[in-house]
Structures are given as structure tokens and as C-alpha cells.
Fold these 2 entries.
Entry 1:
Amino acid sequence: MPATSMEELVSLCKRRGFIFQGSEIYGGLQGFYDYGPLGVELKNNIKAAWWRTNVYERDDMEGLDASIIMHRQVLRHSGHEATFSDPMVDNKKNNKRYRLDHLVKDQKADVIAKVAEAMGQSAENFPAVVAALNANPAQASEALRAAGVRDPFSGEVGEWTEPKPFNMMFKTTIGPVADDESYGYLRPETAQGIFTNFKNVVDSTSRRLPFGIAQIGKAFRNEITPRNFIFRVRELEQMEIEFFCTPGTDEDWHEKWLEARLSWWEAQGVPRSKIEILDVPKEDLAHYSKRTYDLMYDYPTLGHEEIEGIANRSDYDLGSHTKNQSELGLVARVEENLDSIAKLTIPHPETNKPVVPFVIEPSAGVDRAMLAVLSEAFTKETLENGNERIVLKLKPHLAPIKVAVIPLARNKAELVDLARSIKNDLQKLGLGRILLEDSGNIGKAYRRHDEVGTPYCVTVDFDTVGKGEDASLTDTVTIRDRDTLAQERVKISDLSSYLQAKLR
Ligand SMILES: Nc1ncnc2c1ncn2[C@@H]1O[C@H](COP(=O)(O)OP(=O)(O)OP(=O)(O)O)[C@@H](O)[C@H]1O
């Protein structure tokens, strides 16, 4: 059974070294997390699985790693300077600041109903309530107060300001002079680096439509209320694809990508039955989107929340960043661009005339992926002897440690030396991290490796070195299967092929 609460996951992640609060020894920094020894392995494995499926196993994709700090013109013409903002409100009583929609959503049902009524909306249509609050700031602050909207920090009814937009981009100075011109932004999504490199990739690879560019990397959002562990953070990582296709084929590609992405999640242990597909209503679509599917995973404690967005972005992005916009017959409404020096077109596959392609964008968060994968793998079992065990039933390709090699006694040099040499041989197979686990107590070692999801433990005991009761067991080791708890005796000489077959 998957995790039933976020607390279970938070506690496991801290206890076993997956995830720590950022800057913890100075009291922590809200919205920033550090990935520990096992977290970095799991994260790398998720990213590698995504890259393998979306780049290596397809014939229509290229990869990219663009820089994080971007020219302000990029984020001006992408629309982020003007629109990448969330409405926020302050509580005048304690100066705490909240994202308006989060604040209202977390109130009791009767309070939400009162806010909705005051704004002339139905509580069932929550986005419409938020839209009405944003559109009528003065009425909104009165509605929040009259409905008795409580401050989540103090628990008391707040004295709420009018909502105002808050741009979520991190701005930074570039170079030694801090003047009005010398600033850039930390990218709020990786996508823009793909659009600005579109021409470079086309020119250097001779790609023709349809094709896509994949990128994994950090993005930064100054979220007003970061919360729910790594679900909403200020420094996040994204796995994004911009898939360029001929206008008119976009709807078809949108469906294909939806299917491809669901099947990828399934292969990572996140079943379709736990993902709701939200066909985002027209009135809630981002300004660039023709249609968007949000994949809503059923997170413990939070319920269904977005794990990935798959948007049909039309020709908005390349159309916004290209020069000569007026000659290109753009479908999307874009702001005038007199700064770009590149024409972002590609020959139409049938007419050979220059065309600005449409874009399908599957965009997933690595941190949210990690939370979902951990949540699905988390299992509490009662054993035959009545003891309870916690086991992370991660898919082997995602497990941070693939095999733990354990000498039965840590003070017996011949056991430890042989275990080390087995570990070194297995490490050379390139399966991922193999750990020499010589902490001594075999029971504790098994428990630890269950909890961190190690699929196999290999134990070197006295029989292995010919000092046990059964001479026929010399040069064999015990392999313990994490999920079935079955133990098998295998010859050391067969170990590599045995584990390769199980883990590849
Ligand atoms: N603050 C964040 N922390 C962690 N992951 C995030 C954050 N914002 C976005 N993501 C991830 O990046 C993906 C694509 O970003 P997108 O801009 O579509 O998110 P969003 O619609 O702004 O998300 P939300 O509505 O939850 O704020 C999301 O599906 C999510 O997995």
C-alpha cells in the first residue's frame, strides 16, 4: 500500500538521507531543499529514465542544456515579465503574505462558500471565484474579511489587503556594475532556453519537422507560499520537452504525447489509476495555450495535484521570439518583437515554405516526480512473526542502491575482504551504486536496505569462506530479495550474470 500521509514520507526522507531542509544549520530556508546521499541517486535515476525514454529510445529528439541565467529580453518577450505572477494578499495584523488562491482553498467549506457568494460565484467553480477576487481587489479584501478567512499561521481571522500581482521571477545583477541595464533572470522554466536555441539546433542537426528538444535542469520561482515539502519549492528541477510540429498536426501530437507520458509514469511505478487527466477549461488556460492536459497525481495528504502539464502552445513561443513577425502568418497573438535577430522558421515538410511550427510541451517536475515515486513505493507490511517492516518497493532501475554486499561479521577480515572484492567486481558492471555494508548487525542492515529500497542484499558468511558446517556452500553467497524476502544461495562466479539479469 502506498504512503498514506506526507509525514510518513518526510520522516523517512530525513531519517534515511534522501532529503534535508536547505541551509538547515542556520535555521533553514523556506522553499529550498538539499538532496542527500540517497536522494541524489534516486533523483539521478529518475532523470536518467526520462532521458532514456524521451531521447535515446526515440528517433525524433535532441537534447540540450541551456544556461540558467537568461537575458532579460528573453523573459520579456516570452511574456514572463508581464504575466508570470500570482495574486497575493497580506494580513495587516502580522504582515504574513499568502498566495490568494492557496489561502482561500485551505479554508473550511462554509468560509469558501461565503467568499464565493460575496463575489457572486458558485463555490463549485473555484477558479471562477479566484478570477472574481483578482478582478475586483477592493471587493475581494472585504469579502475575505466578512467571510472570516483565517490566517493559517495565527489561526485568527485576518485583516486582508487587496490582492495584488507578485512576479515570481528571481532577478539578479550581472557583472560588476549594478545599474538599470545589468540584470538578468534565473529562468522560471527550462523551456525558454529551448526556444532561444531552436535555430542553433536546427542548423547544427539538420532536423526537419516533426522533432523535439529535451532538457532537464533547474528552474527558480519565488513562490509566495512554498509548502508541502518538495511539492512546491522555490528552486525546482524540470524535465521538459518542446516538440515542434507542422500546424494542423498539433492536436494529434498532443494526444500521442499524453499517451507516451502516462506510459512513462507507469514504468516508474506511478500507475495510471492514480493520475487524473485534467483537460484544463478554456477560461483557465495560460495565455499561450491552445489546450492543456494537467496530469494530477493523487499525493498523500494533498490529494490530486499537478505532477506534469502537457500543453499545446501553438506557435506562441517561436512567434514571440522571432524577428519579422508580421510576415509569418502567426496564429497566436504575440507582443511585437523588435529585439530578436533570428528568424525562427523551418521549411514546411510539404510546401518547403518557411513556417513557424506549433509546439507540444510535456513539462514534468523532478521534485514532484520524486515525491510520487517515493509515495507509490512506500509500503508497510506485517511479517509472519508479527513484526512490521517499512519497505520502499522502488522499481530496480530507480533504486538508489542496487545491491548491498554484507559481510556477516565486521571484525572478521576474511569475510570483509571477500565482501569488498565482490562489491568491487559488481561495481564494474555499471548497474549503479553497489554498497559495502559492514555495519555489523545483519538484521539492522536488512531493515535499513528495505527502507531505502535496495532490491538485493548479498551476504558473505562463514560457509562462503569454507568455515561453516556445509562444505558444499563454499564460494556461494546468500541473495535476499527485498520484496519477496526469499533467500537464495548463489555461486560467487554466477553472481554477476544473476544480478545483471535481475537489474537490467
Ligand atoms: N514550485 C514548484 N515546485 C516544484 N515543482 C514545480 C513547481 N512549479 C512547477 N513545478 C513542476 O513543473 C511542472 C511544469 O510547470 P508549470 O508551469 O506547468 O506548473 P504550474 O502550472 O505553475 O504548477 P502549479 O499550478 O502547481 O503552480 C509542474 O507540472 C510541476 O511538476
Note: The pocket of adenosine-5'-triphosphate is lined by residues 189, 221, 223, 232-233, 236, 238, 306-309, 363-365, 367-368 (CB under 6 Å).
Entry 2:
Amino acid sequence: MRFGFGVEVGVGVGEQLKGFFPIILLTALWTLPSFRKVQIAASERVQRCTRARRRSSRVDSACAKMARYVTNLASMFIRRLHTIPQRCRLKHLVSDTPKALSRGPMPSGTRSLTTNQWMLAVAACALVTHWIFNRWEPTDIPTLFILLLLAPAAASTLLIQHHGVTYGVALTFFTYHASLLSSITVYRISPFHPLARYPGPLLAKVTRWYLTFIAVGGRQHVVTRRLFEQYGDAVRIQFRDASVLQTMMGPKGMPKGLMWQVRSLEAASPALIGLRDNAEHARRQRPWNRAFSTAALKNYEPALIKRVSQFVRLLEEQKHVDFAHCAHLFTFDFMSDALFGGGSEVMQDDDKDGEVHLTHRDFTSLNTFPRSDVSQVIFRSNRGVARLMKASSTKDLFYWLNNEDGSEEEDLPKGLVAADSGLAMIAGSDTTARTLSTIVYCLLAHPETYVRLQTEVDQFYPPEGDSLDPKHHTSMPYLEAVIFIPEWTSVRAPTWSLHRDARNFAQPDAFLSERWLAPEDRDTTAPAGPEGVHNTRAFVPFSCGPWNCVGKNLAMVEMKVVLTHMLQRLRLRFEEGFDCVA
Ligand code: HEM
């Protein structure tokens, strides 16, 4: 159910009218000037016809009849419009009636609207526009263009006649948009809004720019958590309650929100993550599932081993290193290999084309300015196009996305393959780099955990052991426990709040890897072992339900290999003077 201004149109009728409304609105706005023109033209035609009839007996009487009919219709319409100011007894009239009109069949006493009344009419149109937005939530550019620009532009034509172009246009646009914004604001904070019973800061109720502003500063997770503490588990459209996760995101959960459509990398060619239709999503997800099946994961291992060795060598060569930057270079090179079978050498050449920065910026912009051009940039880069031209030498991710295995009856259009490739680069590199950096940061900030993990790595991968071979990973519970520390993962803020909720995890802000171990594996000498609540249902760093992370298994293998190899070969520590606030 929706609350809107004006009359609630029944769903069936409303749906049918959908799309026609802007046209109806525009027609209404255009009617006034255009009917006058019709009327002038028609009355002239009548006069011409009458003169012609006098001159010739072969006059087109049908034409004259038609012209009279149109004239009468126009007169009727204008009479109705013009009786409003008469009734209001307004002193100040805009008398712009052309001569032809006053001479024509216009009824005596007909007058035009005053400027004030015209502004009122414009404000009323803005309310109708608000109702349209509220009812159908249009997001497509043509409709937005019509509603936000064309409608006020059309409305301004009458004022222009009396006030000049600049003043007429400025006044109409100001009246229209100020009325629209005021109407939206009042509605959003009113008790009629469907979310009225969910508390939250006033600004958050009024506009999403509130969150955007906070996200730009990189503190969205902290502010959201504070809001949950202040207002409770439901703060204006965000929930911090593990029990609603399945209802929201489970197989029978809600469809993805509208923002995903806008977030979609290319509106016309949406990537997997931007699909809101369940059936379409399931269809497009099939190649991804094949690409990350247990058997297919083996295909990425040679690239992973090569890139992890190169990454650790890069760290070894430098005494002081910006770990987060290097991690981004590493994951970018690896994803490029895994996706296109190679082509990127940013670990060697650094990010000279700015692509790594672009993916990083793009991921950050998900919470700020959601449109993105990165998929096209990535795809149009030499390696994307080159890979499209040649048959695959390895079963890279593109092999599956481009249906080179022939499993799907129909190939996906190249625009969609490009969009999914861009998504793979962003979702597969930035996430893993950030998680890896966070793990290393936490290890360095908590030496006791570092020592414990080092002991486990030394046990399974002694100096002469092959630390690039993931065969022991399943016997290394501490490695997994460390990776599962839910700190700073680049997931949505409510997830961060869920993970940091003391009702889900004891000592939620503490870096306690022990909590992820079975009781028998826990080190009894470790400080402050986690006692109490441990709600794994509330733990969703890779999201949950049908839209969860398809790349989870690849990410886990990647992080485990790089961590074991790093810990076997390197002794990491914070740089002198590093401000560790963990
Ligand atoms: C530690 C690393 C990673 C984390 C924490 C992570 C997290 C997530 C999360 C939370 C989502 C759900 C987004 C949402 O709907 O709100 C997601 C989706 C996705 N992730 Fe990951 N991810 C990681 C690594 C990867 C990797 C390596 C890939 C490989 C390409 C990948 C590919 C994807 C894709 C394609 C989706 C969209 C799935 C869909 O909409 O059906 N991710 N990821």
C-alpha cells in the first residue's frame, strides 16, 4: 500500500496509466496556449471561409463546419479555465488576449490567470509530479527529463509572455521544484509515510544524501552502529536483527531494492549484482556457479600460485611497504589472470594506467555516487577486447561468462558479458585486498594471535614445505579463524553493525580468533577466551541467500594461500611510529 497525494488509482488502472501520466500532464500544460492558437486559427479560418463563400459558390462548407466546431470547442475550454479568476474577483489580470480572440467568438468577460494563480497552478502540477513519483517511482531518464525539466519548461511558456524569458523560466522552475521538494519533505516526515513508525534522525528521513554524506567520509559503519544504539534495531530502512536476515535476503526473501538498479554498472546492460528479477538473476548466475565450482577452482590455481609468489617477493624486496596498496596490486593482477587469462602487470609496473585506483574508487562509490563506468573501462582495456577476440587457452572466468563451454543455449549479449567482467574485477579484487589488509593489520595489532597463527603455519609448512600448495588448509582451523574475523569487510554497514552487536558475539569489538575454533581446539593459555553468545546466523560477511557472494570459495583459497606463504617467508611488523589504534 502506498500513500500519495491525490486520489489513489487502483492498481490495474494505475498500471495501465503508467507511462501515460507524463504525457497527460504535459498535454494539460500545453493545452492552454495551444488551444488559444487553435482558436485564433479556427476563427480566422471561419472568417476566410465566410469571405470565400461570398466570392464563390463552390465553397468548402464542410471545412467551414469543421472550423466552427473546433472554434466552439476551444471557446468552451477557455471559458471554463477563465471563469476561475472571474469568480475570485481578481484585480490584476494578465490581459494578453490577442486581438483575433477578442474579435472572435470568445465570450465576453473572459480573462486570463494572474501570475499568482499561475504559480499556484504550477505548484499543483508539482504535487501531481510528486504523486507520480510516489506511485510509480520512475527512474528512467526520459521520464525524469519530462517530469523535472520539460513539464516546468512547458509551464513557463505563459509566464514568458508577460515577464520575459529569464524571469518567466526562473519563476516557474523555482515554483515547480520548490513545491516538489517541499511536498516530498513534508510527506517523508509526516505520519502518513509508510516508514513513519521507524525512528531515525530527521535528515535521514528526508534524504538519502544524509547517508551519502557520511559514506563519503568513510564512517558509514560507525555512524550506523551509533544510530542503532540510539534508536534500536530498526533505524529507517536498516535493520540490526539477525532473525530478519533470512526474511530479507533468504531464498524466499524480498527482491533486491531499487538502488541496485541504479547501482548497476551499466543501466542498459546490468551486471549480475544489479539484477532485481529473481528468475533473470538465477539464469545469469548459472555461468558464475559453473565458474566457481570445486572442479573449476583448480583452473585458477596456477595463476594464484604465480601471483602469490610474485606478491611475497615484492614484499621481501622492500623494507618498508604500503601493504594495502601492494595487496590491491596483487589482487588486481590475480583477478586479471583468473578472468582474462592474463594481461595485467601492475605488481611489476605499478598502477600507471590508474585502473586499480578506478576499481578502488568504484567500490567506494557504491555507497556514495552509484553510477559507474568501470566495467566499460576494464572491458575496453586491451586485455578485455583481446580476450574476446581469441579463444581461451585456459578455462578462465571469461570462458564461463562468455558461454565458451556452450552450456547455455543462447550466448549472453557482449554488453552483458562486459558488465559481468567489470563486476568480476571490482568484486574480486577490491574485496579480497581490503580483507587481506585488515587481517594483516589485526595480526600486527595483536601479537599473540600472530604468534599462534605462525605456529600453525610452521607446523604444516616448515621452511622447506611448499606453502603455495593449499592441501593442508583444511587441517588449519586457526588460519580459517583468523580470516573470519569480521573486521572492516567491505560489506554493507548493517552487516558491520550485526557483527559488532554484543547480542550476537561476546566482546564484539575484540579481535578474538579463538571464538571461531571448536572448544577442543582453543588455546587455554590464550588471553580472554570468548565466552558466551556466538550467533553464527548473524555472521554474513559474504551476504546470504540467492544473492550471496559467488566468489566466496575463490576468495577463501586466495587469502589462505597468500597468508600461509607470507607467514612462511616473512616476519611482518608495523613500521616504526605507525599509529596503531586497534
Ligand atoms: C573477501 C573477499 C570477498 C568478500 C568479503 C565479498 C563479499 C560479497 C558480498 C557481501 C556480496 C553481496 C553483495 C550484496 O548483494 O549486497 C558479494 C557479491 C558478489 N561477489 Fe563477492 N566478496 C569477496 C570476494 C569475491 C571474489 C573473489 C569474487 C570473484 C569474482 C566475487 C564476486 C562476487 C559477485 C559476482 C557478487 C554478486 C553476486 C550476485 O549478485 O549474485 N566476490 N560479495
Note: The chain has two domains: 11-189, 262-569.
